[in-house]
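TICKET #2291
ISSUE: user wants both folds in one file
ATTACHMENT 1:
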Amino acid sequence: MRSRIGASVALAAIMLSAACSGPPMTIAGAATSTSSVDAESNPPQTAEPVGTGYLAAGPGWVAFIEWHKQGTSLTGTAQFDQAAGTAPAERVSAQTVDVDGQLSGPQISLSFDSETAQFGTFSGSSFTLNVPQSDGSLLPETFHKATAAEFNQAVSTLQEQVNKTNVQASQAATVQHDQAVIDRDVKAVGDDINRLDQDASAVAASVGVFSKDLETEKADLATTAKDEQKVLTEASNSSSGDNTCYDAQDVVGYDAQDVVEYDTEDVIGYDAGQVEGAVTSVRNDITALRSDFAQLQKDAVVLPSYQPNAPTGAEVDQAIASASKAVSSAVTGANAAIDQANAYTAAAFQYAAVAYRAGNCGSPPSTPEPEKHIG
């Protein structure tokens, strides 16, 4: 569709646009009086009512031509109205051009703004122009006698069509937007479920490190017990000299404070921290899943006819229940490991206290605060 109608091809452009791809450009016109004269006898002219002319309309356009006839000569104006722009911002645009031509018997020719004439046939209450097309063919377009009121009604109908097109386009855009929002929600919920499953598997696996580390701490505690027995043997043998307190303080005491206690605080404590971090991730995942699923349900209400392949409430509940079970099991397992490590530490410090007392080696080291549970 052309952005404006050139003076020489105003009507041709409208017709061609209507025939090829869409509504033509519009032109608005002024009302003029018309007269009718027989070209052969040239009798006195009789003026028609002001506002009478010839009307044609097509998809997205309306044309109205009014003229005066003097002999065989025609002069007047043509108003063209058309849908312009793109929905939902389409509008009716109007343009007016001058018309001149010839009417001789049934033969009529019209030129718009003094440009190339269009030829056709006239039959009293209507005329048909043959409009050249881009492929070289002629497209006939018929104009019927009509009043200005009929032209106004045709323009009003065109405006209604434009308004309807805009409403439909706006509604389609709204539906497209709502579908995109729902699709985004569906993806978010699906991603949440996948992430939750992965993190739940990770939290379950994170508890596995405790077994190996507790075995190491148990072996370290056994070494502490063995070193304590050595001190007790030395304390009962007067020939051992000064080795008793050295072994009590720098061997058994070292075992308790720098080996077993280290195992509890820095190894088992680190393991517990890793589990707690994994548990926090799962809980955050559950919160995000619940929030995103609630948003999906809210947005889906706006467009109930749209049914994408979205996760169901049952699937969401199942994912949350499975992950919650993994969290509960991990927390229980981690806290059991912490309790075992605390027990090993308490036992190690008890061995140290016995060794200190056996050799009268002063005050033994104080048993540290137990490692705290994770929540």
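ATTACHMENT 2:
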Amino acid sequence: MIRTRFALVAAPALLAGIALGGCSSSSEEAADDTANANAAVCASLTALRGQISEVTDSAAAAADSGDSVTVGQAQTAVEAIQSAWALVSENLGQLSDATKKQFEMAQEDYQTSLENVNPDDSLATARDQVAGAQEELRSSYDDIVSQLGC
């Protein structure tokens, strides 16, 4: 009889322990998944930020020296940033919807700024507009990077 009572008391306790152990494992896995997703985005974002910095710094150096930037150079810079963004985009699928939306809005604002560059403007004016758009994009990414803990 004592064994029966012990079994009746021990069995639910054992099942509860197993269930709780499974829950903590799942939450640990979720935390690991989030950390891995953040790390992947951080790595690809670091590459993107490097591209943006390179383009912005080159534009500033050209402006300081009085050199002009050709349309071809500007297009190459835009393509490099778009390529780096594609890698970030791939990794965004692992993040929360809110974080994905922040990235998408920053990129959309950047694209809109580039599309609004008047083809009839001088290269100097276009360069300033592109540099301004890139600086805004860099600032937006800095905010998001801070939130991800990169």
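RESOLUTION: both attachments delivered.
EXTRA DETAIL ON ATTACHMENT 2: The longest helix spans residues 2-65.
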